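Course assignment 3, question 2. Fill in each field.
Student: A.L.
Task: Predict the tertiary structure for the chain below.
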Amino acid sequence: MSNQEIRAELKNKFLLVFITEFWSDNPLYELWTEGRIEISKWDNENENDEIHYCTKKTTEWFEFQEKYNGEWLTANELVEFKKILKKKFSQKQD
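Answer field:
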């Protein structure tokens, strides 16, 4: 889509799309969900990013996914989103 077609409220925002993937059919992982979150800008198809995830299947995770899937975030909101994702759903804490 060209820049002329971008709705003003979406300029400089990032779209989040959750894509569920199945990395393993090992029974050890049946309580886990895995995939990626695609992050893209409306006005730049080449400026895409993605975050891979593998986290336990919980109500909290599915509510988080439902809340953010298909949402447009500002740069500051995206930073906060990534912090929440790391803090609540990452098994490895730095």
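Instructor remarks: The CA atoms of residues 4 and 70 lie 22 Å apart. The chain has a mean pLDDT of 87.
Grade: pending
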